[in-house]
Amino acid sequence: MEHVQEKIVQVTGLRKTFGRRVVLREVNFEFSAGKIIGLVGPNGAGKTTIMKALLGLISTDAGDVQILGQPVSVNTHTVVTQEVGALIERPAIYPFLSGWQHLQVMTTSTTQMAWVVKALQMEDYIHYPAKRYSLGMKQKLGIAMALVDHPRLVILDEPMNGLDPQSVKRLRHLIVQLAQTGTTFLISSHILSELAKIIDMVILIDQGQVLLQRTMTQLQASAHHSLVIRTTENPRALRVLLHAGYSVTRRHDDLIVAKSVALTPLLRTILGAHIQILNMDQQQEDLETVLLGLLAEGKR
Ligand SMILES: Nc1ncnc2c1ncn2[C@@H]1O[C@H](COP(=O)(O)OP(=O)(O)OP(=O)(O)O)[C@@H](O)[C@H]1O
What protein family is recorded (predicted)? Predict the structure, then answer.
């Protein structure tokens, strides 16, 4: 029997205006279960608004949201309460309740609570009243509330906000681990280097529209390669290469030659000027560079 991948999220023709301001134009995307999806785009692109619409937290002007084949709107969110965990913007935290009591609102399972507290390393303060929590501790509690009870879909808006590097690393591992056991994640983040380490797919939003939806494999295939060259005389090598028509920049002790160029003439140019090459390497554009390039292309 053919294995059909279950659509976990399906968004069709989503439109949202605030007064006369069009915030979502015609948003369409869908993805299947067990993946980590990055929702990225410039400030004000509409990412948070999309996440709120997915959760039935805001009314929309047109379009349709389905999670696991069930409709979601401000009036219909059974599937959200049963299958989705989320942290949007800042976590809603009651100062006089402890972290543990916040988790008790989300689940009746102490096993689940203990699991998430351990997974996010919150043991030391989980029984303190939340008013004593730092920004990062509150953020972790918000994430814990989204993850407890293992929902099938987890929506996280800027989850790395306020977390120390160790916590970021721990959260990254946890997300990957949970995704391997079938949890689907939709994560927005401006820290593209962090996101790139875990996501399977990118949905790029710009001005209330989906500019593109690509798998990381597709993005990597379209990434440009550059050559990183170190010579005994970088300033002169730079001049020689620029003069020969190459597109070169300097970065620290390296010269970066953009895109793929034929090696032999390049080497001949450098060696012909009696400059020695100390090191040479191929480098692939990172996610940030690729996405910024695509955004600029989209604007044209
Ligand atoms: N309640 C509201 N009333 C009016 N405008 C709003 C409201 N909520 C959001 N907007 C506007 O909608 C646009 C999209 O906002 P949204 O928060 O979805 O963007 P974002 O992509 O999440 O941005 P960021 O990366 O800065 O978090 C922004 O221009 C914002 O000013």
Answer: Belongs to the ABC transporter superfamily.
- Among the four given CATH numbers 3.40.50.800, 3.40.50.1100, 3.40.50.300, 3.30.450.40, the one describing domain 7-221: 3.40.50.300
Distance 130 CA to ligand 1 centre (A): 28
Structure confidence by residue, pLDDT tens digits, 222-238? 777 788 999 999 999 99
Ligand 1 contact, 75 CB (< 6 A):
no
Q: What is the pTM of this model?
A: 0.86
The dotted CATH code for 224-284 is: 3.30.70.790
CB 209 within 8 A of CB 26: yes
Q: In the predicted model, is pLDDT for residue 258 greater than 70?
A: yes
**58 close to ligand 1 (CB < 6 Angstrom):** no
